[in-house]
Design brief:
Elements (H helix, E strand, L loop, with lengths): L4 H78 L2 E3 L6 H13 L6 H26 L2 E3 H35 L1
Helix pairs in contact: 1-2, 1-3, 1-4, 2-3, 3-4
């Protein structure tokens, strides 16, 4: 059998069609992989933004609790300069109670684990701080030194929690700025 000019033309058309089909499949697969990569990058960036927002929220709550605790510590210091024991003095700090409640609500939010752990630690410290302040209402004689040292321990826990949140926030901010 011999190949005529028309046979070669048909063969070239068929080969060209097959190459065009494979090229079309290649283009579609390439576009799909580009779309998947883009979608993955967008999702990762959104996750980083959400984590950054969460850390900003947690930072604000803990800073508020620290500010309230600092006010209470100043009140304890002022009262301690007057006498060594509390006698019919109670420390009422409703802002500290509100800050503690806000931390308690925040730990039930859907936040990243490391933020939730820091908030839990801060919430527990704020609870203990509030409990110590409310204890002054029930105990008629309490040593200022004991109250102050206990409250300072809880204050340092609040500061440590804030530092962890700030480190997480800085990490996520750095990763956001990389792209």
């Amino acid at each position: 059998m011999s190949w005529h000019h028309g046979d070669w033309l048909s063969f070239a058309q068929a080969a060209g069609s097959i190459i065009a089909i494979f090229g079309a499949f290649g283009a579609v697969l390439f576009q799909h992989s580009m779309h998947v990569r883009h979608t993955k990058r967008v999702a990762e960036r959104d996750l980083l933004r959400d984590r950054y927002r969460s850390s900003t929220y947690a930072e604000a709550l803990i800073e508020n609790a620290i500010e309230c605790a600092a006010g209470a510590l100043r009140s304890i210091d002022a009262a301690a300069t007057r006498s060594g024991e509390i006698g019919d003095i109670s420390f009422v700090h409703p802002r500290m109670d509100e800050a503690e409640k806000a931390l308690g609500v925040a730990i039930h939010s859907q936040l990243p684990t490391e933020i939730t752990r820091s908030l839990l630690s801060a919430w527990m410290a704020a609870q203990q701080f509030c409990h110590a302040l409310h204890r002054t209402e029930k105990v008629s004689v309490m040593k200022f030194a004991n109250l102050k040292s206990f409250c300072q321990e809880q204050f340092s826990v609040l500061n440590s929690s804030l530092e962890v949140v700030r480190l997480s926030k800085a990490k996520w901010e750095r990763r956001l700025n990389e792209e």
